[in-house]
Amino acid sequence: MAGHASGAVARTGQNPFLRAVAALSTLAGWISAAMIVASVVITCQMIWVRFVLNGTTVWQTEAVVYLMIAATLLGLSYVQRLRGHVNVDLIPLAVPRRARKGLAVVTLTLSIAIVAVMLWYGFEFWHVAWARGWTSDTVWAIDLWIPYLAIPVGLGLFLLQLVADLVALLLNIDAPFGLEDV
Fold this sequence. Notes:
The protein is mainly alpha-helical. It contains seven helices and no strands. The chain starts with 15 loop residues before the first helix and ends in a 12-residue tail after the last helix.
């Protein structure tokens, strides 16, 4: 709502844990961006093969779908680090700093719990696909554990960034909701 936090990056101070998580989140963001670029290149190649060379495509559409989903999941931690997720700060702006910090602790704790449950079931889903040798029902027949690996990895990195945000908040390295006192 308010433009206070736009462009704000989660602070790490000199804390080695926070700096390591920030580095991992940044790396995940770069990998996510590379996956999007690869999707665009593959889409252009697919268009060239279909409409210029009048050929058939086998793997391109499926690869683009898997790359875009993986890019979304792997990019979660980077977007969290940049405070890019949707944030309505009407209530945090209306309450005093102490209450704002308490609200931020509750919010981060609930977010951590929800993402941890999603990570648990995401890992279980990936493991079933890996253990049972699931493949896609397409001509390409890719082993599904490969694209499904983005679920536990992406959610694990997101969970790690949320924990880092909570640690930074509790150690007073970062402000609640990224909002400085006015």
